[in-house]
Amino acid sequence: MPGVSRVLLTGNIAPDEAGRCLLRPAVLAVWPHRRNRRDTREQRRETGTEMNIVVCVKQVPDTWSEKKLSSEDNTLDRGATDPVMNEMDEYAVEEALRIRETHGGEVTVLSMGPDATKETIRKALSMGVDKAIHVLDDALHGSDALATSRVLAAALARVEGADLVVLGSESSDARMSVVPAMLAERLGMPQLTFAKEVTVDGGSVTIKRLTDEGYQVVEASLPAVVSVVEKINEPRYPSFKGIMAAKKKPVDTTSLADLGIESADVGLDGSWSSVESFQTAPPRQAGTVVKDEGEGAAKLADFLATKKFI
Amino acid sequence: MAEVLVLVDHADGVVRKVTLELLTLARRLGEPSAVLIGSEDAGGVYEKARDTLAEHGAVKVYVADDPQLSSYLVAPTAEVLAALVSRASPAAVLLPSTAEGKEIAGRLAVKTGSGLLTDATDVTADGGAVRAEQQVFGGSTIVTSTVVTGTPIITVRPNSTAPEQAPAAATREDVTVELSELARGARITDRVVEEKGERPELSGAAIVVSGGRGVGSAEKFAVIEALADSLGAAVGASRAVTDAGWYPHQHQVGQTGKTVSPQLYVAAGISGAIQHRAGMQTSKTIVAINKDPEAPIFELVDFGVVGDLHQVVPALTEEVIRRKG
Hints:
The complex is a heterodimer.
Chain A: H1 2-9, E1 13-15, E2 21-23, H2 31-47, E3 51-56, E4 59-61, E5 83-85, H3 87-103, E6 105-112, H4 117-127, E7 131-135, H5 145-156, E8 164-168, H6 179-187, E9 191-201, E10 204-210, E11 214-221, E12 224-228, H7 240-246, E13 251-254, H8 256-259, H9 267-270, E14 273-280, E15 288-291, H10 296-306
Parallel strand pairs in A: 3-6, 3-8, 6-7, 7-13, 8-12, 9-12
Antiparallel strand pairs in A: 1-2, 4-5, 9-10, 10-11
Chain B: E1 3-7, E2 10-11, E3 14-15, H1 17-29, E4 31-37, H2 42-55, E5 60-64, H3 75-88, E6 92-96, H4 99-112, E7 116-126, E8 129-136, E9 141-147, E10 153-156, E11 171-174, E12 187-193, E13 207-211, H5 222-231, E14 234-237, H6 239-243, E15 264-268, H7 274-277, E16 285-290, E17 303-306, H8 309-324
Parallel strand pairs in B: 1-4, 1-6, 4-5, 5-11, 6-10, 7-10, 13-14, 13-15, 15-16, 16-17
Antiparallel strand pairs in B: 2-3, 7-8, 8-9
């Protein structure tokens, strides 16, 4: 599980005095934030700078499960896999919550997808998001990125006065990384994408955008669309209290008709690109594996020479 | 013959290899027109880029030289391309499948009401239809797709084809674009280069040498860099490495990182978890060095060495230097 590897890597498992390794519940780390938040929220409410944040999340097949296309309509066979919240979106939820904790305000989670998407929405609510919009409609099946961004834009129009729209920068299934840019284009908001750091200050937002050589500093006025990369923060685990509270939080389930979108404009029929066919890639031919007994490097060099790399 | 727009990927007029690959593919679909969006001094950029673009088949070069174009993120380039799409009615628009290339393509698709295909590994024309081949789910499935609405907008992965020469005029045509308010929404106030070396960029590199958890520490990453330098390669890293802070995030290969498809991929101390494979599985030749003979990376390799990378990699570096003379 991705979550577990993160715990291991960030040193949440620390040996105690007796040298035993204990798993420290990550939720402990969240408590101080929660306490601080109440103070800042009150301050912010007084100054009227509370943030209205929408975080978009996608339910995807677990990274570890084998993904397949369905031969019926060339779409991802979601029944064959375990659904989870897209990992990068956990960072988006966390960042939205942190911005709320600093500036006060409200976080709404927005997701589109079949009935099972409720689990992913529930997870966001358990992490501390205040409420949810679920776009649920059979006609959505097979929507491409353009159709998806269209539906999300229409749903966002229903959130009054959104200051910030936060997304993960990539989904682990389609891996296109285009929905945040498309959404910005559709909403007419500035695009601040691939953020490894986000700072909101008054009416503006500044990010550090990850680039090939380092980063760019990019700034815009609110409202804006922000997408985040996974080094930006450490997503919290839902606490027991959070899980219980999530059950009572409002989820607005909305259909395409509610959003004023024709079924024919989304889904497989409404998408502007089409998968004609697919095939399983031919397996790579088994290579040569040698055990290094002093000659490993030379043998590897011989191989690279036969391939003309050296 | 219809024009095919190719967005030029360049650094101050030095044209990146992926552009030549795009021009090569564009010739299958029509007559390539390069779109050169310059930094401060685009006139000079055209002079620098002209010969390379001409050698590789650019019949026209559209030059957009407003300094504002590079002061704002992504949106201005999409606006220039949208204006050109309505002016030239091209058969297709090809862009590099980099993070920024895909974002430009996404906005362009919305603006022009066109279908978008990203991460193509091949592009073909069949009668009137433009088809793209994509390798999805970490290369396990090959998909053939078409665009059914508007102008096909296709981003192509670097190293998908070998650049071919085909001399053409590369005639300059200036483009003036009045940027909209929206395109000036996200202002780039600083560009920070965290490292600057002679190494090629990861996304387009012909050879990539990557290190994983087995490297052991940030300091020991020097052995990976040394091998990369001996081969003239870019340096990659697994997520375990970037999460631990041993190497900068922009070098991460795999899911949530970069997808590379080089001629040669060298994986040292990388077990080959599915998330890593998603970013390198389509490499032409794969070699690996790993202590664990059971590591899944060995299922992918053309040549593998079971052994300690701290012995094998430095020895290989010496061997490469010696053989290259």
